[in-house]
Amino acid sequence: MSSTYNARSAAAYEHFMRRWSRQLSPRFVEFAGISDGECILDVGCGTGSLTRVLLDSADVKSIAAVDLADIYLESARQAIRDPRVGFKTGDATSLPFADKSFDRAFAMLVLHFVPDAKKAVSEMRRVVRSGGVVAATVWDCLGGMPAQRLFWDAAATLGIASDNVLRDFYFRPMTRPNEMRAAWSEAGLKSVEQSSITIRFEYENFSDYWFPIAAGEAALGKFALSLAPEQRAALEAAVRNVYLGGEPDGPRSFATTAWACKGIV
Ligand SMILES: C[S@@+](CC[C@H](N)C(=O)[O-])C[C@H]1O[C@@H](n2cnc3c(N)ncnc32)[C@H](O)[C@@H]1O
């Protein structure tokens, strides 16, 4: 298996993650760098939030954007109609490109879904020319992401999530402190730099939080849809309780940090 990600609906993805990846994209590009005339690779492009920011950040020559999820690629193709951008189905652990095809490779919020994440890093290195840059971000979430712990902690307390399901959420590849730095060095990348970027997951109210989960998006939605109706109702009630925290329904804001790492081929 080359991914633990569950893509079901591009519209639900917009709600679930894209609004956060839109915040993260410009900060990640600032960290990784970009220059006019470059050939860029966007690995795990999803619905194209980073692709859009890459286009806006420099007068690039081309962007190849790959993802495993055709429904996301289709939405990205509709949203970004630029002759310099080519969207393609592809696996991060077996990139469909020749050696040294790119000046810079980016992977935003992808590697923590790739069980063999080190293979994905070595693939990014393979397809970038000597002197080019390989950069990625993953959530800094050893033990779980703040906004999603509401969900998984409630599921664990209700006794409806197996250890395997919980482990997949709480312990993901590349999320340990310095794990990215070590993987970049092990892949032979030079001048490796690791940093942190903090953004905020902000919700209007509980429905805003629950909508993509009810739509079956990502691991949370997949898990929720796998439950019997009465279990799903119990989980929703428990998560709502935690979200409300004794206060009326309304906005909540979860500061969330990503690791960012880059190195030179
Ligand atoms: C959280 S989304 C991030 C998408 C986009 N980079 C963004 O930040 O909006 C994770 C993406 O990684 C893709 N993905 C997961 N494993 C992959 C793999 N092995 N190869 C290519 N794409 C993968 C998923 O399909 C999904 O689109």
Structural features, described:
This protein has 265 residues and is an alpha/beta fold. It has one domain (10-264): Vaccinia Virus protein VP39 (Rossmann fold), CATH 3.40.50. 44% of the residues lie in helices and 23% in strands. It is built from ten helices and seven strands. A seven-stranded mixed beta sheet has the order 3-2-1-4-5-7-6. The radius of gyration is 18 Å and the shape is globular. The site of S-adenosylmethionine has 24 residues, from helix 1 and helix 2.
Structure summary:
This protein is of the alpha/beta class and 265 residues long. It contains 10 helices and 7 strands.
What key phrases describe this protein's structure?
265 residues, alpha/beta, Rossmann fold, 10 helices, binds S-adenosylmethionine
* Percentage of residues assigned to helices: 40-55%
CATH class: Alpha Beta
Second CATH tier, the architecture? 3-Layer(aba) Sandwich
Could you describe the largest sheet, including whether it forms a barrel?
7 strands, mixed
Series of H and E elements: HEHEHEEHEHHHEHHHE
Number of strands: 7
Tally of domains: 1
Q: Helix count?
A: 10
Distance between the termini: 27 Å
Structural class estimated from helices and strands: alpha/beta
Backbone shape: globular
Main sheet: which strands, in order across?
A: 3-2-1-4-5-7-6
CATH topology (level 3) name: Rossmann fold
CATH superfamily: Vaccinia Virus protein VP39
Mean pLDDT: 95
